What does this fold into?
Amino acid sequence: MTKEKKQKEQVNGSFDLSDKDEYNHDWGKFPPFHNESWYFNFIDRPNKVFFITRLSYNMDKKKSLVLVLPIIDGKVRVYFKEIPLEKMPANWEIDKKVKYYCIKPMKQWRIKFKNSQVDLDVNLEGRFPVFNSAAGTDPLAFLKEDYTKTEQVFAQMHYEQPMIATGTLILKKKGEVIETRTIKGFGHRDHSWGIREWGGIDSWNWVVAQFEDETINFYKAEALGEEKQDGIIYSKGADNIRITNIEVTTKTKENEKTPVSSTFIITDENGKKRTIESKTIFSQYLPLPSEKGLTEVYEQVAVFTYNGKEGDGISEYLSTTRD
It folds into this structure.
């Protein structure tokens, strides 16, 4: 079998998606830094409840990492667990505290989180269809013509979807229920698989801004001297519009690292420019040390303003300092 034929079989002949792509992929032998991850968030600002979680398989290291960040009334309750791949439950009922369920592929997920103080049961249903930026791409043409240096550190299949979050949050104290809140807000998810070498990425901004009638979702990254950017605007009753250029200006705290606000000027495929402002209302610092240095992620819950509208979302910042 030729190398090209093997590559084509690995990606099933195209970069299009099917329902089975919701689940983990098995290509047999994995290259260094191969990672597959599922990320979810939701923001219910009236209830002062934010939620971020990431489930990842680090294939070459033969382990899985589970991170859950329920943020309630400004307080974060961090759950983190490292699991050997061979002990990872196939049904993703991680333990008594964390459970993930794909209810309808490409449409609906359910997540449960429970500890001594919190009992959260949330349903995430697609607000817009899944967006796959590589849909229709010929994989061999990509491998021959479009594969750039950045793909050496974060080459991957990747799709995203704006969501609507509904559910129930129960707060407890000494085993007694003290409060129940009905969750309702916008959320987002993404699923990616491929190379993810955190220490090889110089910087990135990843943004999802949720408004009543649309979602604006984009990223801008730098690695190995190259820049990569992409994004999409989802709107009710209209076709998706591709984002082709992103300009970012960020204000930070005195440490010159922690972001407090940003201005994003985005240009779409039709040449139209939009200016989006973000203001951080909660920041979670996530250090990722590696043999190359320290990669620092700031997961920012933010309020966004655009064209006279206000919305909620995530503005994620990453930077790497090498030894």
In short: DSSP finds three helices and 19 strands in the chain. Residues 198-323 form a domain with the AttH-like fold fold (CATH 2.40.370.10). The helical segments are 3-10, 139-146, 151-154. The first helix runs from residue 3 to 10.
